[in-house]
Amino acid sequence: MSVARSKYLVAISSHTEQAFQGIAKHKFHRIDNPVEDEYFALEGVGEPGHVLFVGSLGRRKNLLGLLSVIEIASKRVPELTLVVAGGTSDKAYADEVENFIAERNLSKNVQLLGLVKRQDLPAELAKCSVYALISREENAPCAITQAMAAGKPVLASNVGGIPDMVEHGKMGYLADCDDTEKLAEYLITLLEDDNLRRSMGEAARVEANKRFRKEIAVARALDVCREAIADHETLRG
Q1: Strand-pair partners of 78
Q2: What is the pTM of this model?
Q3: Residue 145: count of CB within 10 angstroms of its CB
């Protein structure tokens, strides 16, 4: 395997490093996925009750689980609206999603936008007050880094590299993806407390500024390249 033979390795999350423990013979250099500057420029706390999900309609992203959370939370927050921005990766699963919405009378609480163009995503993110993603499996989701850069609190599952991105209780809330009651409780807490949303969003943006700026990723990548070149020159000399 190339990972086992390589001396200079880059990981975008601690989850990646853990996945290759026992295989990689050398340490990983950590470089987080960078976020476009336009997300850092977004202002405002979003519209009341507006929750955004960005991702494909497939089982891994667990939109059905999030819809269960919305069903519970909407009983306390009637104005709650989940906006779903994403194309269909699994037609059967997408049909389940539409059936769930119809059977649970959630059409007034859920908007399915379909695939949204990249240039239109910042506007959707600016409108939301909470970003939600309770996937069953993730590494380091770009959508979460974008939400953090935009100053939005995050409701997410505690899988993969997400706990290394979002500090629970400070930048948002994390829970098991199947614990819909707990996730709904967290979502209600966020939607009912303007000051909490604001403080968590600000904390998320501070973290994003420290980790997800493009110039930080470029600088770290150059450091790895310089180290590799110096090492190569030493071996040649």
Answers
A1: none
A2: 0.92
A3: 24
Between vectors from CA 97 to CA 130 and to CA 166, what angle results, nearest 5°?
30
pLDDT at res. 166: 98
Q: How many CB atoms lie within 10 A of CB 195?
A: 8
> Token pair for residue 18?
């853990």
Lookup: tokens for 148: 């953090």
Number of C-alpha atoms within 13 angstroms, CB side, residue 91?
0
pLDDT at 236: 61
Question: Residue 18's pLDDT is what?
Answer: 75
Give me 72's structure tokens. Answer: 């519970």
